[in-house]
């Protein structure tokens, strides 16, 4: 084997360069007769030549090995640099340290604001505010992963691009602020219905920045120190105007051209085009892709009572007071149309002109409040009760209104954490619901109005919840003071603007029980008692005003009044537990002086 080395001029960085050539072993040479040595010298001469050849080979191989060790030293291949800093021949730890030191030396330069131009506007962006940093560990890992062959490791030179990180959402927000009114939002495609007529909104592209490409441009400009130009680009919605027209022609128009028949085991229901139009939705996602779907809740609402012919509504378990104790009355399960596949089935038949029939199963539906759940609510004792009196017996319209609303609320169970709304529970209180005309306060005077007297029940209910220690959410006292109510601690009601609400802020259920006599109405709260006592302490009346006399046009709609003083007063709800005051809540109200209304012409 022949090994030879050729010495070349050293490069600028004075690294040694060695060229190694290998040939086959052994080399066949012509056989020449050798001179015959003296008898004693022949073996020695042969051994000498072998030893000499072996020594030369060992020396050369040792030299080559040393060069190889030098070339492959460290994790990062020699000749590798980042941002002009040599990292080759170092371990990852040392390379990372060297790169961080280099970045520290360039800190002032790298922290300088970047000049960015978007459209016709230019601004400076602080690198730190958008999270621009060199990821040192990732950069060193990229440098170490460089695929360098043996010769490249000896003589090669390579520059590795640093791995730069940026907070894309923060950068995007800064750039969009710079865009301002130069850009425009994407106009999303839409298909809606006016009655049963489809209406379209065609898509339009947004004029904005591309977050990913903008981030790349800013990262490059940051390292180079050069101004950055971020172009405004059009971002088109995924659904085109042609596709909107196709959806209208192939789905929206035929969908409302005829009814759909829904069959169940209990009979069938016709879904009219008006209900289909209210349930059929075309929703665009963030990319502007328009997808049809059926909003089953809106469809059910549009069908109104039609589903009642095939469905059986579940009935909640109830609770009554019998023999002075709460008693649970079982509810029952119901059956409702299984809507899990209803939307998909409808979308299948809506494009058709014929065979527009779908079927659905009726699935069992448990009541919201089962007997077992009701028994676990801890409703076991009366925790408060309040009574107010009225005149005129039960035959008067006002008394009948009180009885009607009392019966409506009777037996209501308020779950833990739930808020009870009196308007929400009764709905509108009109003639259809059994209410009659009776005096109500309107614009500062008593006038006939449907539902008069319900405010007295509201005051009674408010006080029962008040003395049960339940949380007051919404109430409003009357404008004028009436002696039949406790001052300040009372409430009026009027549909739909004035409501009374309380929240069950306990861990137990609350049962509202009501009763009445010919001259009074009582509301009681049943639950688990958690307070020792709930009482009211009053402050003195102040800012007292006197009523004035007002003459009204006499007639059937004129209701006289004797008038009352106006005043301001504070009331404090004091709640005790374990003999200590745990809550002291202040309620304040100012009553106006009720005029003395006289149904007659004013004297001359």
TrEMBL record:
Residues 240-358 form the YoaR-like putative peptidoglycan binding domain. This is Vanomycin resistance protein VanB. Residues 1-43 are annotated as: Disordered. InterPro entries: Glycopeptide_resist_protein, Vancomycin_resist_VanW, YoaR-like_PG-bd. The chain crosses the membrane at residues 50-73. The keyword Transmembrane applies. Keywords: Membrane, Transmembrane, Transmembrane helix. Residues 1-16 have a biased composition (Basic and acidic residues). The keyword Transmembrane applies. PANTHER family: EXPORTED PROTEIN, EXPORTED PROTEIN-RELATED.
């Amino acid at each position: 084997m022949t090994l030879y080395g050729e010495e070349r001029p050293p490069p600028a960085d004075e690294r040694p360069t060695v060229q190694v050539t290998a040939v086959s072993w052994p080399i066949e040479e012509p056989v020449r007769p050798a001179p015959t040595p003296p008898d004693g010298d022949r073996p020695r001469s042969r051994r000498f030549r072998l030893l000499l050849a072996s020594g030369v080979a060992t020396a050369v191989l040792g030299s080559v090995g040393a060069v190889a060790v030098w070339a492959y030293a460290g994790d990062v291949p020699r000749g590798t640099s980042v941002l002009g800093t040599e990292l080759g021949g170092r371990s990852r730890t040392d390379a990372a340290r060297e790169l961080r030191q280099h970045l520290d030396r360039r800190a002032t330069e790298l922290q300088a604001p970047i000049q960015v131009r978007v459209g016709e506007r230019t601004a400076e962006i602080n690198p730190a505010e958008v999270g621009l940093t060199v990821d040192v560990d990732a950069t060193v890992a990229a440098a170490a992963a460089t695929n360098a062959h043996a010769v490249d490791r000896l003589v090669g030179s390579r520059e590795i691009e640093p791995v730069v990180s940026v907070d894309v959402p923060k950068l995007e927000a800064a750039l969009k602020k710079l865009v301002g009114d130069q850009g425009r939002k994407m106009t999303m495609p839409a298909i809606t219905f006016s009655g049963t007529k489809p209406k379209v909104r065609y898509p339009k592209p947004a004029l904005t920045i591309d977050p990913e490409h903008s981030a790349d441009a800013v990262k490059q400009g940051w390292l180079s120190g050069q101004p950055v130009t971020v172009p405004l680009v059009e971002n088109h919605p995924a659904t085109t105007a042609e596709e909107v027209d196709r959806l209208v022609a192939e789905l929206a128009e035929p969908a409302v051209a005829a009814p759909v028949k829904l069959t169940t085991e209990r009979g069938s229901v016709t879904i009219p085009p008006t209900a289909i139009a209210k349930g059929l939705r075309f929703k665009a996602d963030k990319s502007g892709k328009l997808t049809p779907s059926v909003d089953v809740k809106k469809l059910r609402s549009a069908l109104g009572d039609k589903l009642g012919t095939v469905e059986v509504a579940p009935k909640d378990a109830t609770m009554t007071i019998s023999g002075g104790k709460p008693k649970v009355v079982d509810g029952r399960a119901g059956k409702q149309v299984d809507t899990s596949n209803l939307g998909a089935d409808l979308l299948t038949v809506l494009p058709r002109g014929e065979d527009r029939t779908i079927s659905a199963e009726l699935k069992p539906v448990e009541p919201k409040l089962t007997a077992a759940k009701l028994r676990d609510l801890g409703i076991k004792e009366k925790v408060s009760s309040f009574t107010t009196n009225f005149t005129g017996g039960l035959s008067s319209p006002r008394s009948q209104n009180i009885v009607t609303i009392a019966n409506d609320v009777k037996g209501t169970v308020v779950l833990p954490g739930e808020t009870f709304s009196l308007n929400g529970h009764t709905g509108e209180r009109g003639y259809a619901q059994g209410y009659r005309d009776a005096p109500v306060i309107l614009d500062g005077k008593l006038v006939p109005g449907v539902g008069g007297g319900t405010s007295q029940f509201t005051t009674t209910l408010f006080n029962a919840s008040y003395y049960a220690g339940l949380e007051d959410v919404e109430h409003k006292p009357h404008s004028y003071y009436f002696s039949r109510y406790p001052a300040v601690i009372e409430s009026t009601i009027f549909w739909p603007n004035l409501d009374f609400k309380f929240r069950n802020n306990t861990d137990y259920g609350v049962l509202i029980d009501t009763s009445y006599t010919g001259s009074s109405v009582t509301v009681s709260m049943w639950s688990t008692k958690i307070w020792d006592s709930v009482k009211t302490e009053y402050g003195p009346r102040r800012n007292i005003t006197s009523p004035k006399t007002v003459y009204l046009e006499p007639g059937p709609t004129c209701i006289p009044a004797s008038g009352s003083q106006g005043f301001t007063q504070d009331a404090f709800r004091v709640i005790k537990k374990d003999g200590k005051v745990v809550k002291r809540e202040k309620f304040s109200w100012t009553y106006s002086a009720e005029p003395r209304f006289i149904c007659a012409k004013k004297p001359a």
